[in-house]
Amino acid sequence: MASDRARHANRVFLVVVDESPELKVALRFACRRAKATGGRVAMLYVTEPADSSEWLAVGEIMREERRAEAEHRLQELSAVVQSISGDMPVLYVREGKVRDELLKLLDEEPTISILVLGAGTGPKGPGPLVSELAGKLSGKLHVPVTIVPGSLTEEDVDAIS
Which of 6-15, 26-35, 82-91, 116-125 is least confident? Predict the structure, then answer.
């Protein structure tokens, strides 16, 4: 029993931050699971790289602005995570393509034990990251992926987590 508690305490639920409506559902699910298991939430925000054709100074200003936006968004979401899970999240900000940076982070960070993604509900499908990770890239992952339907309400999430 004590070893089960120790194993659960090491769980880190990673959520990829974007501007999609399903982020809210995935984040709530991760927070509730972290709280229930004594785990922790981590959030990854990936910024787009500056266009290499831009002037160096302009590109650097754009990079700094994107970083500031990422940090602001993560601060907002950190308050949500703390209010639901009772703990501050681990934050990661990367620059590049979301898929590539996510895979790198999962390889570099052995504490991450579960990836939680929200699935889109629109006509375009669940979203490109969910499609790729549940499909052709699933064999490259060394952590389980929990896909939370974006159509769930807060009550639905609370009931299953």
Answer: 6-15
